[in-house]
Amino acid sequence: MARSKASKHRQKLEREGRRNPENNRSPYAFADLTTRRTKTKKDYVYKRKPKNHLFPSGDNDSFYMGMIKKVLIS
């Protein structure tokens, strides 16, 4: 790959005994300062909301209704 103009300029400064501008950069320039947080209860509820998670898995919302006969003995 070709070197950029800025990269060539930095190398020239180093060759001449001057300080490389890369060394002037703050250590925070390379740090990842984004905040990470755990999910809240509300995040989990909204994630599950469109799906039907009211019943345990494997339940297909069907039921069986049996008939009970009463035998009358007289």
Would you mind describing this structure in some detail?
The chain is mainly alpha-helical. The protein has helices at residues 5-15, 41-48. The protein is rod-shaped and about 115 Å long. The mean pLDDT is 76. Residues 1-12 have a biased composition (Basic residues). Residues 1-34 are annotated as: Disordered.
Mean pLDDT: 76
* Helix/strand class: mainly alpha
Low-pLDDT stretches are none
Order of SSEs, N→C? Answer: HH
The portion of residues forming beta strands comes to under 5%
Tally of helical runs: 2
The N- and C-terminal alpha carbons lie at a distance of 104 Å
Rough shape?
A: rod-shaped
Instruction: State the major sheet.
Output: none
By DSSP, the count of extended strands is: 0
Overall helicity: 25-40%
How large, in whole angstroms, is the Cα Rg? 35 Å
